[in-house]
Design brief:
The complex is a heterodimer of chains A (149) and B (75).
Chain A lengths: L2 H4 L9 H18 L6 H29 L7 H33 L11 H23 L7
Helix pairs in contact in A: 2-3, 2-5, 3-5, 4-5
Chain B lengths: L1 H4 L4 H8 L3 H9 L6 H11 L3 H4 L8 H8 L6
Helix pairs in contact in B: 2-3
Classes of the chains: A mainly alpha (149), B mainly alpha (75).
Chain lengths: 149, 75
C-alpha cells in the first residue's frame, strides 16, 4: 500500500472552517475594496490579500494529501471527493464570473452611470484570487476527520 | 460490528483493503458506498459474501435480531 494512503497529512489536524473563512473573507474584502474610494480601497484590498494569502497557505497544507497526489496514491473515495470538489469549485467560479459580467453591465448602464465600481482592477484581482483558492476551499470543506482515526 | 468482532482497528482494516482509515470510517457510517472492487475486498477480508456486508435496505438493529432469534422479549 502506498505510504501516502497509510499516513494522512498531519496538517489536516488544522480545522478547516477558520481557514475557509479567512480565505473567502480575504477575497470578499478585495471585492468590497473595488467599490470603495481612496484611501479606504487600498487598505481593504491589502488586508484582504493578506488574509487570502495566509488562509490559502494553510489550506493548501491541509488539503495537499488529496490535492497533490496522483490518483493511484489515493483510494476511490478520496478520488471521488476531490473530483466532485473541483467540479463544484469550477461551477461556483463560473457563477462568480457571471456575476462580474452582470456588475459590468449594470455599471455601464444608466443605473450605474459608470460610478458604482471604483476600481475594476480590484474586482478582477478578486476573481483571480477566488479562482486560485476555490478548489482548495471546497476540498477542505468536504474533508472530515473520523473520530478515532 | 464485524470489525469490532474481529478486534480489528480501523487502521488495520484500512491497510488490508488498501484504503485510507477515513474511508473505513465513511463506510461504517454509511456516508460512502464502495465500488464493487472494494466491496469484494472487504468480503474477502471478513470471509463473508458481499450481501452479508452490504444491503440496499438498512440492516435490522442487532437487538432486534437477538429478540427474533430468542423468540421475542420474555417479560
Amino acid at each position: 500500500m502506498p505510504e501516502a494512503v497509510r499516513a494522512p497529512a498531519p496538517a489536516r489536524a488544522v480545522a478547516a472552517v477558520p481557514l475557509v473563512a479567512l480565505t473567502t473573507g480575504g477575497c470578499l474584502a478585495v471585492v468590497v475594496s473595488a467599490f470603495l474610494t481612496e484611501p479606504a480601497a487600498p487598505v481593504a484590498a491589502l488586508a484582504g490579500l493578506t488574509g487570502w494569502a495566509v488562509g490559502l497557505l494553510l489550506l493548501r497544507r491541509r488539503v495537499e494529501h488529496a490535492a497533490d497526489l496522483p490518483d493511484d496514491q489515493l483510494d476511490e473515495r478520496e478520488v471521488g471527493v476531490r473530483d466532485r470538489s473541483y467540479l463544484h469549485a469550477y461551477q461556483a467560479l463560473g457563477g462568480a464570473l457571471a456575476l462580474l459580467l452582470f456588475v459590468t453591465v449594470v455599471d455601464e448602464s444608466s443605473l450605474g452611470d459608470g460610478e458604482v465600481v471604483q476600481s475594476w482592477t480590484y474586482l478582477v484581482l478578486a476573481l483571480l484570487l477566488l479562482a486560485l483558492a476555490l478548489p482548495s476551499v471546497v476540498l477542505a470543506a468536504r474533508q472530515r476527520r473520523t473520530p478515532g482515526d | 460490528v464485524l470489525r469490532a468482532e474481529r478486534s480489528m482497528s480501523r487502521a488495520e482494516l484500512a491497510e488490508l483493503i488498501e484504503v485510507n482509515p477515513q474511508t473505513v470510517g465513511s463506510l461504517e457510517r454509511g456516508d460512502y458506498f464502495p465500488s464493487l472492487d472494494l466491496a469484494l475486498r472487504l468480503s474477502e477480508v471478513f470471509g463473508l459474501p458481499v450481501e452479508a456486508l452490504f444491503s440496499r435496505t438498512p440492516f435490522a438493529p442487532l437487538s432486534e435480531q437477538v429478540y427474533r432469534s430468542s423468540g421475542g422479549p420474555h417479560a
